Amino acid sequence: MIPAEFSYRRASTVDEALALLAEHGEDAKLLAGGHSLLPLMKLRFAAPEVVVDIASLDELKFVRLDGDEVVIGALSRYHDLHGDPVLAEHAPLVAHASGAVGDPQVRHRGTLGGSLVHADSAADLPAVILASDGVLVARGPAGERRIPAAEFFLGPFTTPLEPDELLTEVRLPSQAGLGWGFEKFTRRNIDWAIVGVAVVGRSVGLINLGGTPLRAAATEKALADGASADEAAALAAEDTSPPDEPHASAEYRRHLARVLTRRALLAAGIA
Amino acid sequence: MRVSIEVNGRTTAGEVPDRTLLVHYLRDTVGLTGTNIGCDTTSCGACTVLLDGESVKSCTVLAAQADGHEVTTVEGLAGDGGELHPVQRAFREQHGLQCGFCTPGMMMASVSLLKENPRPSRREVREALEGNLCRCTGYHNIVSAVVEASGQEVDR
């Protein structure tokens, strides 16, 4: 399978990438690690006329502390995040989940920013960043704007980013000392989650329980009201509309959400 | 577009369509057919090569993305005099292959694994090769081969 024809451009700075986006508008797509976009292009689900390769923008590859916030460059690869010492202390859920995406080859290429802007509700990191109260920072012709993760995932593969905007970094409150848990149920290890659950502190993110990554609002409210892990986990699938597919029905996914939420809460130290 | 990629220590170059996948560049432009095309969907790992020393699936990388970078294929493992790479030797010794189709990708993924984790346990080997499928299901000996290549005793 070969993508439809396109014109390849390589940007060497963020400004250059923005200029190329401004020039080509909706005909252009940014290419980071390419592990969401290239498969779509090979299947001809996406056929941009111009592909702007931003993988060499080293200015977007970093993890640093900024006061009480962890700041992650959008082009940080899963492989780098998994072994990052700052994340190990301040966002261990992000480090762990990054090591659980795909396989080593995928983690050598795929980036956090790429996963977030692709906005696949079956992907791991969108729900992790949502549960982490992350804020996404985008740059465009009008300058920079900050979008809370809760307002970023609008629908399947849909975000508020404009065609001329580029995600530059993700900011999270430090999670140092907070309990966390991550549970993912797959057929094979390298598959997308049938269902996944990310817990940090008392926040619960759900993977593949609907068209977007979700927070388990009923579970979180129950925990705030003093419910046990068992009681709170029983509410994990409330108000969700999971995909109903031959290999995994909606009801099966709701069941998994309850089971995995309980496990993740226990792992996070919530009894 | 014109791409130039250092493949197995040798500079290669070619005029290719922008949409050319790295695996096609390696096989068709450079003429190195050791890298197999399996699933073509980033799943099976048969097309695994090293890009700047790290394992990647070359069906999901554009040749253009590798322009100016270094690629190692299975042909680049053996020494100049033809002596086998420790991973190749171990795959032979432990019979880490059956039909052989997954073997180039398995070996490249193993080289990448051993670079990141020089003394992996059997479990760690299994996890690190999760992106490489063997349709013969000959995984057991493949794991043994990687353990042997790491210089550890093979404990079956």
Please tag this protein with its features.
heterodimer; A: 271 residues; alpha+beta; 5-stranded antiparallel beta sheet; 4-stranded antiparallel beta sheet; 11 helices; 32% helix; globular; B: 156 residues; 5-stranded mixed beta sheet; 5 helices; 31% helix
Secondary-structure blueprint:
The complex is a heterodimer of chains A (271) and B (156).
Chain A: E1 7-10, H1 14-24, E2 28-31, H2 37-42, E3 50-53, E4 63-66, E5 69-73, H3 78-82, H4 85-90, H5 92-98, H6 104-109, H7 112-118, H8 124-131, E6 135-140, E7 143-148, E8 166-173, E9 180-185, E10 195-200, E11 203-207, E12 214-215, H9 217-224, H10 229-233, H11 250-267
Parallel strand pairs in A: 1-3, 2-3
Antiparallel strand pairs in A: 4-5, 5-8, 6-7, 6-8, 9-10, 10-11, 11-12
Chain B: E1 2-7, E2 10-15, H1 22-29, E3 48-51, E4 54-57, E5 70-72, H2 86-93, H3 103-116, H4 122-128, H5 139-149
Parallel strand pairs in B: 1-5
Antiparallel strand pairs in B: 1-2, 3-4, 3-5
What does this structure look like?
The complex is a heterodimer of chains A (271) and B (156). The radius of gyration of chain A is 18 Å and the shape is globular. Chain A is α+β, with helices and mostly antiparallel strands. In chain A, the strands form 3 sheets. In chain A, strands 4-5-8-6-7 form a 5-stranded antiparallel sheet. In chain A, strand 10 (195-200) and strand 11 (203-207) form a beta hairpin. Chain A has helices at residues 14-24, 37-42, 78-82, 85-90, 92-98, 104-109, 112-118, 124-131, 217-224, 229-233, 250-267; strands spanning 7-10, 28-31, 50-53, 63-66, 69-73, 135-140, 143-148, 166-173, 180-185, 195-200, 203-207, 214-215. Helices cover 32% and strands 22% of the residues of chain A. Chain B has 156 residues and is an alpha+beta fold. Helix content of chain B is 31%, strand content 15%. Chain B contains 5 helices and 5 strands. In chain B, strands 2-1-5-3-4 form a 5-stranded mixed sheet, with helices on both faces. In chain B, strand 3 and strand 4 form a beta hairpin. In chain B, helix 2 crosses helix 5. The longest helix of chain B is centred in the C-terminal third of the chain and has 14 residues, at 103-116. The N and C termini of chain B lie far apart (50 Å).
